[in-house]
Automatic annotation (TrEMBL):
Coiled coil: none annotated. This is Arsenate reductase. Belongs to the ArsC family. InterPro entries: Arsenate_reductase (IPR006659), Arsenate_reductase-like (IPR006660), Thioredoxin-like_sf (IPR036249). One of its GO terms (molecular function) is arsenate reductase (glutaredoxin) activity. The lineage of its organism: Bacteria, Pseudomonadati, Pseudomonadota, Gammaproteobacteria, Enterobacterales. It catalyses: [glutaredoxin]-dithiol + arsenate + glutathione + H(+) = glutathionyl-S-S-[glutaredoxin] + arsenite + H2O. GO terms for biological process: response to arsenic-containing substance. It comes from Serratia oryzae. Its EC number is 1.20.4.1.
Length: 142
């Protein structure tokens, strides 16, 4: 069992890039397919607290339930927003990565580099061609 976990959606490029950055550090994370196995309320609340973000900051806005439920309106409590995320896991933004060094919403994917316990082992280029890590495992600045 790994000490790194990723709440992953394989259909998402950012999530795929984040997973590969974790693997590029020599770590095979625990992969949680959160659309198939959503977190419990307790786990979701802890993830939000550990990330130090608001509940609303974790909401995905560009998905159908967001519009259908009227979530753009700011008249929902945090508990109600969490209920919506649990009922419609697609509303949970991703990927969320948990490591011994912290928990982050990894958007963009290279945010994961801030919390990985192991250094990158080689070059990494995102799916879109953006180089993120050089051959020596050093993070490239934009």
């Amino acid at each position: 069992m790994s000490n790194v976990a990723i709440y992953h959606n394989p259909a998402c490029g950012t999530s795929r890039n984040t997973l590969e950055l974790i693997r590029n550090s020599g770590t095979e994370p625990t992969v949680i397919l959160y659309l198939e196995t959503p977190p419990s309320r307790e786990v979701l609340v802890k993830l939000i607290a550990d990330m130090g973000i608001t509940v609303r900051a974790l909401l995905r806005k560009n998905v159908d339930p967001y519009e259908q439920l009227g979530l753009a309106e700011d008249n929902f409590s945090d508990d109600q927003l969490i209920d919506f995320m649990l009922q419609h896991p697609i509303l949970i933004n991703r990927p969320i990565v948990v490591t011994p060094l912290g928990t982050k919403l990894c958007r963009p994917s290279e945010v994961v580099l801030d919390i990985l316990p192991e250094a990158q082992r080689g070059a990494f280029t995102k799916e879109d061609g953006e180089r993120v890590v050089d051959a020596q495992g050093k993070r490239l600045e934009k």
